Amino acid sequence: MTEKTSPGLLRLMLVDDHPVVRQGLRAVFGSFDDIEVVAEAGDGAQALQLLRVTEVDCVLMDLQMPGVDGVTATRQITALPDGPAVLVLTTYDSDADIIAAVDAGASGYLLKDAAPELIMDAARRAARGESALAPEVADRLKHRTRSSQTLTRREVEILELLAGGATNRAMAKELFISEATVKTHLVHIFDKLGVDNRTTAVATARERRLIR
Question: Could you give the domains of the chain?
Answer without folding.
Answer: 10-144 (3.40.50.2300), 153-207 (1.10.10.10)
